[in-house]
Amino acid sequence: MMDKMKHYISYLVFGVLTTVVNLTIYKLLIDVGVHYTISTTAAFVVAVIVAFYTNRRWVFSSQVMGKSVLKEMGLFFAVRVGTYLFDLIGLILMIQLLHMDEFVSKLIVNGGVIVLNYILSKRVVFKSEADAKADTEVKVEVEKNLKTQE
């Protein structure tokens, strides 16, 4: 129970740090007149670098080494590109269609981004051996059930 609590607190702390980095860069750029799509892209790049390091080291305590780190990093960035697209599309909809404030829109969309980032990081990128084993067991069971239904 304490390990789970520590895990969630770590994600919360480093998630807040990453979100602050993201929002600060975004706000600074839009305040100097940079278009919101460029601002959110620049903020995304810096925040993802911060997030990968902190999530890998302190949140999910990844132990992979060597080339496996590159695979982990590739998965992390691929997942984050997906949530970046969610972020960008959300901003376009809120700013262009609903005529909402650029920063307020970013705050709202970030809520969904944070949830998606956690779920995808835990389930796809930094999957523990126990999670991987459970996924394999589920796949085997599903395949077995499909064969018996044929």
UniProtKB/TrEMBL annotation:
Keyword Membrane assigned: yes
Domain GtrA/DPMS transmembrane, chain residue ranges per copy: 11-126
UniProt record similarity statement: Belongs to the GtrA family.
GO BP, sorted A to Z: polysaccharide biosynthetic process
Record keywords: Membrane, Transmembrane, Transmembrane helix
Chief location of this protein within or outside the cell: membrane
Domain of life: Bacteria
Residue spans crossing the bilayer: 12-30, 36-54, 75-97, 103-120
A Gene Ontology term for the protein's cellular component: plasma membrane
Record's protein name: Putative flippase GtrA (Transmembrane translocase of bactoprenol-linked glucose)
